[in-house]
Amino acid sequence: MVDSNSFTGADKVKRNLKFTAIATVPVLVVAIFLLTRGISEAWILIALAAAVWTLLWVRFVGVGTRGLPDQK
């Protein structure tokens, strides 16, 4: 069974944010490359990366890297 705090501890928050940065930066680089080549649909990739970061911001606003309180 998965521990309810497996994704919310302070070390997990830093790990998850680092993974998100590592995963979204190459997507943004590829999107910018595609935009310079004239493929306008690459805006979708930028929108998806922005949505991921927006969801993270909404979830962790005011928490910082302290971690979230214990989850029930």
Explained architecture:
The protein is mostly helical. 62% of the residues lie in helices and 0% in strands. It is built from 2 helices and no strands. It has helices at 10-36, 43-60. Helix 1 (10-36) runs antiparallel to helix 2 (43-60).
The profile of the biggest β sheet is:
none
| Shape, principal axes of CA atoms | elongated
Number of strands: 0
State Rg: 15 Å
Terminus-to-terminus distance: 14 Å
Helix content: 55-70%
Strand proportion: under 5%
Tally of separate helices: 2
Element-by-element helix/strand order: HH
Average of pLDDT: 77
Query: Low-confidence parts, pLDDT < 50 over ≥5 residues?
Result: none
Structural class: mainly alpha
Brief account:
62% of the residues lie in helices and 0% in strands. The protein is mainly alpha-helical and 72 residues long.
Ordered list of secondary-structure elements with their pairings:
Elements: H1 10-36, H2 43-60
Helix pairs in contact: 1-2
Key attributes of the depicted protein:
72 residues; mainly alpha; 0% strand; elongated
